[in-house]
Amino acid sequence: MPRLTLVKIGGKVLDDPRALAGLLDDFSALPGARVLVHGGGKLAADLAQRLGIETSMVGGRRITSREMLEVVTMVYGGLLGRQLVAGLQARGINALSLTGADLDLMRAHRRPVREVDFGYVGDIDAVRGEALHDFLSQGIVPVVAPLTHDGAGQLLNTNADTIASQVALALADRWEVHLVFTFEKPGVMEDPDDETSLIRVLDPAAYARYREAGVIAGGMLPKLDNAFAALANGVARVYICQAEALPRLYQPDFVGTTIQA
Amino acid sequence: MPRLTLVKIGGKVLDDPRALAGLLDDFSALPGARVLVHGGGKLAADLAQRLGIETSMVGGRRITSREMLEVVTMVYGGLLGRQLVAGLQARGINALSLTGADLDLMRAHRRPVREVDFGYVGDIDAVRGEALHDFLSQGIVPVVAPLTHDGAGQLLNTNADTIASQVALALADRWEVHLVFTFEKPGVMEDPDDETSLIRVLDPAAYARYREAGVIAGGMLPKLDNAFAALANGVARVYICQAEALPRLYQPDFVGTTIQA
Question: With an 8 Å Cβ cutoff, are A102 and B96 in contact?
């Protein structure tokens, strides 16, 4: 199967024009088929603040009010997606910006209200991989925003890491998918404050040990559970690394965590 | 050649959720291949105002500052385009939202500064009709936002009427293109205040007469010059009508102005 590199970017890279330009250079230089999945960085929160929209968080997760949904639709589906595409076109990469509503790419249902009402947040039901496959086989790069729809006219806000994993899974039957999560640290660390403690390779056995020892904990657990689930379902490799590590992704001197089954 | 209906919407229809829902119903019921081109309505100006961004106008045309370009990228390329697509998906129409940067669809150059610097406004150089044709031949409906790019990473603001005409022209070699400009009046009127004065059919000879007599003047002239240019270059028909007239477009009791060569 031909190789496909799916890169998820977010946070600092999107907030810093110079870092973003570097990322687009590196992404454009990657060999083979590519997909770019982007989060929203601070731009959505900044715009909400300028508009006087309160963004409430529960347990580290943002509640998406109707007004906040409009903000993320503008920022993710408009500003960021279109600017990324214009930047890729300038680098000779034929790209297009897609949300889950476009081509019915990602259908979701609004998350049921249990203890918390997350508002207009969607949990994905289906990804139409064949729509992406058609673009990829023509050399076109899909740029995917973290927005889904419910099929009844409602857009929904969906976590960009989840989108990246689900898109990777939907393409794994026709592509050798390498899924890259860019991260602020060099990768999964034994000690987050010690740059030399990078875990270069993580397999299920090592993950179980680190987990039991409490070395890997907190917000990294759902990320890694997701990664291993992707590997179990046909994704070839998952990487966690800094955006700056992208040019060495397929080289022996790659700096980052490679997650393998 | 198969028939293609290209509908340009703007203004009031986009600002009124109920009118927009009706428009989407009517658009979805049109026979054959379709393209939807949208302007921005008042939403962009409203958002700019909420953000304290001044929008300056010269001779009825908006100056697009860098900040205003971000606003229209968010509103046209994000909020409106994605909501229109979600609304069409809910009606069983497989659609996607495109700007000129996506798939390099519409390349433009920044308008040269003569008496006025219009800012980030693009004049179109090329429309890649084959990209749209690929979608259309699969039954997919392109929803086109009035944004172009310069190929060097810069998005540009471009008039939606111009986009509609240029897209129509780019498709005219493979489709029998019917180009519909929705309008606030029932069509081109002999007397704008008299609803019974609708001009039902306008050909070049009649246009010349109305023009000489001063019956047709002002902002309608560039619209109609554009329309006749489209007809001269292979577009089958141009219509100016209210959004509400769309269901009767191909019927003998259609209420609107049909422009023909």
Answer: yes
* Range of lowest pLDDT (A13-22, A139-148, B160-169): A13-22
Judge whether A82 is closer than 8 Å to chain B, CB to CB.
yes
Find the radius of gyration of the CA atoms of chain A. 18
- What radius of gyration do chain B's Cα atoms show? 18
| Chain B nearest CA to A100, separation (Å) | 9
Report yes or no for ipTM above 0.85. yes
The tokens describing A217, both together, are 């904990």
d(CA A119, CA A139): 37
Query: Domain range holding B160?
Result: 3-259
B46 close to A (CB below 8 A): no
CATH at B21:
3.40.1160.10
Number of domains in chain B: 1
Q: What is the pLDDT averaged over residues A147-156?
A: 98
Residue pairs spanning A and B at CB distance below 8 A = 112
Contact predicate A148/A122, CB 8 Å: yes
- Per-residue CA distances from A116 to A61, A113, A157, B147 (Å): 10, 6, 16, 39
* Whether pLDDT at B55 is above 90: no
Instruction: Name the pairing type of β-strands B33-38 and B3-9.
Output: parallel
A7 pLDDT band, cuts 50/70/90, is very high
pLDDT in tens, B112-168: 888 888 899 999 999 999 999 999 999 999 999 999 999 999 999 999 999 999 999
User: Which tokens sit at B157?
Assistant: 């603001």
| Region for B159 from its dihedrals, namely left if φ exceeds 0, alpha if ψ lies in -120 to 50, beta otherwise | beta
